[in-house]
Specification:
alpha+beta; Ubiquitin-like (UB roll); DNA polymerase, domain 1; 2 domains; 5-stranded mixed sheet; 6 helices; 7 strands; globular
């Protein structure tokens, strides 16, 4: 025989609040804030997963797919973007091994930000680096080209601040492009294009007329 005093009261059971789930109110993963200027446009603040690589942030959050994911290990340099430092200098940074949060508060340029565009977004003029790459047929499949464009651009900007002697041009190009891998073996034409930019741009070489 069941003891009626131990039977649950249906009314009180219905009124009792449900116990909260152990993880109620928690995010499924840790997020970090990112505010970054990309190609002159302010982005954020945005909350992104703590482990999100910058290459994925550019592709998935901003729709900028020009930076290429090649090796995923920071070796091929197809993924590099330009980081514009507060002191006016610039450098390339590998986005496949650098978290998006690293760029919080920074200014960067991707390959999409080099050419001049009109109000509708149509390209109206290429940069000297881009133009010379075309003239020299520097690339075949083009997958590695964004990395080469950014590296060459950083080199040209450095030479505007710190010109080199003519006999140092080859070494400067090698230093700038040496880490970039081209799977179509197009290195020679990349080098020739960058040399052409350097020698045809006034002020980059100290003794170009000699």
């Amino acid at each position: 025989m069941t003891d009626a005093s131990q039977s649950p009261d249906p009314a009180s059971a219905a009124a009792a609040p449900a116990a909260p789930a152990p993880d109620a109110g928690r995010k499924p993963w840790t997020t970090l804030p990112v505010t970054v200027t990309v190609n002159g446009r302010a982005v954020g603040p945005m909350e992104v997963p703590a482990g999100l690589m910058m290459i994925d942030f550019l592709h998935e959050y901003l729709g900028l797919t020009g930076s290429r994911l090649g090796c995923g290990q920071g070796i091929c340099h197809a993924c590099v973007v330009i980081h514009d430092k507060p002191d006016g200098t610039s450098e390339t940074v590998r986005t496949c091994i650098t978290g998006a949060n690293y760029f919080d508060g920074k200014k960067i340029r991707t390959v999409e930000g080099h050419a001049t565009r009109d109000a509708d977004g149509k390209v109206t003029a290429l940069t000297p680096v881009q133009q010379k790459f075309l003239e020299h047929f520097s690339f075949q499949c083009g997958y590695c080209t964004p990395g080469f464009v950014n590296a060459a651009t950083v080199l040209i900007e450095r030479l505007k601040r710190e010109p080199v002697a003519k006999h140092q041009v080859e070494a400067a190009i090698t230093e700038a492009l040496n880490d970039h891998i081209c799977r179509c073996t197009g290195y020679v034409r990349y080098y020739e294009a960058v040399r052409d930019v350097i020698l045809s741009t006034p002020g980059l070489v100290k003794d170009v007329g000699r």
